[in-house]
Amino acid sequence: MSVRSATAFAPASVGNVGVGFDLMGHALAGLGDTVRATRIEEPLVRVRAIRGVVTELPLDPERNTAARAVTSWRTRNSVPFGIEIEIDKGIPLGSGLGGSAASASAALVAANALLDRPLPVATLYPDALEGECAASGSLHGDNVAPQLLGGLVLATHDRVVPVPVPEGLTAVVVHPHFVLETRRAREALAGSYALGEFVAQSEGLALVLAGCYAGDLELIRAGLRDVLVEPRRAPLIPGFAAVKQAALAAGALGASISGAGPSVFAWFADAGQARAAGLAMQSAFAAAGLDSDLIVSPVAAPGARVVACE
């Protein structure tokens, strides 16, 4: 019997991971968006409701990330029925946690579950990119790819590559109560760059990837630094320098801006170390006048999943 309605959850994510601007990201356990997709007779995609921590989002299918992603998927796969979606936002927008991407990812996984033979999750990637584009204006997969597949993922314009990570590798993310719009963060990147900056950034990405595949934390520590993007965005985040220093002083392998910010992430060898560092990072934001939320998650966190079918 065909599924009439399906509900899926997609996690928050850390985009860029410092060294992999628009190319690398990882999922976060706990926080996320939930979307319900329901079959309808009309051959279209529409948004019925938006609830949760963010409600002032466009209902227009072309401007809504979830609806645009499902529209792309429906067209590309010649799906014969229409789909109505309901979005429950668990991720605040402008947080650097992949909020716009999570709605698209959850909507695709829910819609895909309505098929008699659901497609492999990785095949949803091109449609998730289309959804992300509705919010950011560009096709970058560093949030949708890990949200769909889980864990750490290298995401190019046409493929996703899961990256293994050392056992126990843990991320701490501190989200200050401060909104930094993605478009504003991208505007900060305008200007010229020195060739040496690209070489240093490439070196960092190579070391982190080598460390992940080899299970070598010291290689990761040597590479996990952003010399290209972070210096241009750091001034947009109150207290950033102190927050990063708190993480490094607590033994972080590296720390930087999560996505477009203002959230700050750091990687640690184990969860206990990460929790203690998170409190120090929160204190640094408090000194800058900002309350914050703390997330501690395995870097190898699970991706999107169906949570209910009717």
Structure description:
With 310 residues, this protein is α+β, with helices and mostly antiparallel strands. The chain has two domains: 5-163 and 301-309, 2-Layer Sandwich (Ribosomal Protein S5, domain 2); 170-298, GHMP kinase, C-terminal domain (Alpha-Beta Plaits, 2-Layer Sandwich), CATH 3.30.70.890. Helix content is 35%, strand content 26%. α1 (65-76) runs antiparallel to α3, α2 (99-112) packs antiparallel against α3 and α6 (195-214) packs antiparallel against α7 (217-223). The chain is globular. It starts with a strand and ends with a strand. The relative contact order is 0.19. The model has no long low-confidence stretch (mean pLDDT 95).
CATH architecture of the largest domain: 2-Layer Sandwich
- β-strand number: 11
Please state the structural category. alpha+beta
Instruction: Sketch the topology as an H/E string, one letter per element.
Output: EEEHEHHHEEEHHHHHEEHEE
Oligomer: single chain
What is the CATH class name of the largest domain?
Answer: Alpha Beta
User: What is the averaged pLDDT score?
Assistant: 95
Helix content: 25-40%
Which percent range describes the beta-strand content? 25-35%
How would a textbook summarize the main sheet?
7 strands, mixed
Sequence stretches where pLDDT stays below 50 over 5 or more residues: none
- CATH fold node name of the largest domain: Ribosomal Protein S5, domain 2
**Can you count the helices?**
10
Distance between the termini: 10 Å
Count of discrete structural domains: 2
Estimate the global geometry from the Cα principal axes: globular
Computed over alpha carbons, the radius of gyration is 19 Å
